[in-house]
Amino acid sequence: MQIDFSNQLHYFWALLPETVLIVCALLLLVVDGFWKGRKGPGRAVGSLSLVALALAAAANYWLLGVAEVGTTGAVAIDSYRIFTNFIFLGAAALTVLISFDYVAREGIDLGEYYILLLFCVVGMMLLAASRDLILIFLGFELMSFAAYVLTAFKRDDPKSSEAGLKYFLLGAFSSAFLVYGMALIFGAGGTTNLGVLREILVAGDISPMLAGGIVLLTIGFAFKVSAVPFHVWTPDAYEGAPTPFTAFMATAIKAGAFAAFIRIFVIAFGDLHIYWERSIWWLAVLTMIVPNLIALVQDDIKRLLAYSSIAHAGYLLVALISANESGMASFLFYLVAYTVMTIGAFAIVLVIAGKNDRLQRIRDYSGLGWTHPWPAAMLALFLVSLAGLPPTGGFIGKFYILRASIEAGYPNLAVILAFATLVSYWYYLRVIVSMYMRTAESPLPRLEWSGSLRTAVAICALITVFLGLLPSWPLLKAQQSVEGLVRVTERVSDSFGVVAQR
Amino acid sequence: MPLLQESLALSAILFVVGTVGVLIRRNAIVMFMCIELMLNAVNLTLVALSRQVGIEGQIFVLFVMTVAAAEAAVGLAIIISIFRHYESVDVQHFRLLRW
Prior knowledge:
With 502 residues, chain A is mainly α. Chain A has helices at residues 9-14, 16-33, 42-63, 79-106, 111-129, 133-151, 158-189, 194-200, 208-224, 233-240, 243-268, 273-295, 301-322, 325-353, 368-371, 373-387, 393-407, 411-437, 451-469, 472-481, 487-501, and strands spanning 2-3, 67-68. Chain A has one domain. The longest helix of chain A has 32 residues, at 158-189. The longest helix of chain B is centred in the C-terminal third of the chain and has 31 residues, at 56-86. Chains A and B meet through helix 6, helix 7 and helix 10 of A and helix 1, helix 2 and helix 3 of B.
């Protein structure tokens, strides 16, 4: 099927996965409202939301066979979008699976939890799909509003409300920067369409308005992907939010923001690479170093994982700066690995924390390896992968990012990345040492983890190991997904040539 | 193009006022009002530019206004939920999580 947007109906086909998901979410709201069962509708809505995600994934798969005409449609239909959509849908499905136990235990077993999660996913999918600044802004806000509410979802817990407020204030603040940047870019480029902007904005011709727009946009995105020094909200929001949603925030929401970040900077501003790469270079360096150092002294495991996720945003920024084909491919590959290992780690943290999230200190994990071998082994696997040791997906992903950054001519970034990774070994291994080499102060009670949670952890573990042992097939898929963006690389090197000639 | 520079300068000033307000005030509702001021500064920029550049700016303004309204609903709900715990909307009192 060909899509050229000559007909309004083409927008419907181009946005089919989003449409399917949002219709399902609205239907679930109705189901939730009219539920007559004795028990609450939470569990049923949760199961149905898995069906909704599967339907959206099917629609997304259908998009693979759809071709678009030109590169200026407001909705992009390229394999980059389809690949990231699968990441979002998969992360959401895993989050739903690990949520069942948690919401029942903490008394927030409400249908809205899952419905808001679906809206959040729709926002991300719009972010990955849109080639228009207005649509990107709307996608951001749709994603963020659902995220604010879900962060503050434990209404009885002052921590959760506090996290929600902080996340909301700083999120709205950063949105204002983002939209001001978009307004200035609209003024400088004369259009909000990224495909057209790409043709208009060429190197060597940069107005103050455009420069201001790029700076403001960078600040806005830095907040959204929690790059240092705009990360202050992240540990608080991650610590206070319900744990399964923290896993979702650390993975899918960050991935959504990165998807739009790449769409705007690498694709629309590809020719302006020399102007924005220096500022993002500094962001990446700070984001790799600072959180790894702060994480060394954390006692709370949720906070530790929050700082670890900030550091991982730094690694992804390295892939973004590289702005070449292997950079984009390694970005997608790392995103998959990062998503499964982070969700897996948070799932184990959620199980061990027990009612009211009491046991979240690292010393609560002492002796876990002997009293509860399975959860400890799984957590150890995910931490090893996060640290980037073989034979896991985290190692291969980091390796590809290193290779891409060297290919793109940033050996110094590669050195800093390797150094930051070395520092991070200390705090990841500290948890593992505590699990296996200390004796328990007070043994944990029997853990309650249901079949759905075990399934999710098993899937995460399998994918982590699979990516580590057989990386070629997923990497090939990632490379094919960014082939449509190839033109960017050539243009970037061209613009370097132009500057060199002057 | 009459008054384009002036409108852009005014909206930049409004935006800075809003930014400074968010950074120095400690009352959650006032901070939120400052964010709304920033969004309105953006709207002014868009309207001023769209006379020269194209109609998309005015369409953008409609979306920004809608989003700001939705943001007010979500934000005030969160502020109410935290007020129930602390009987205060002063962010300096919220210290359970290290800020």
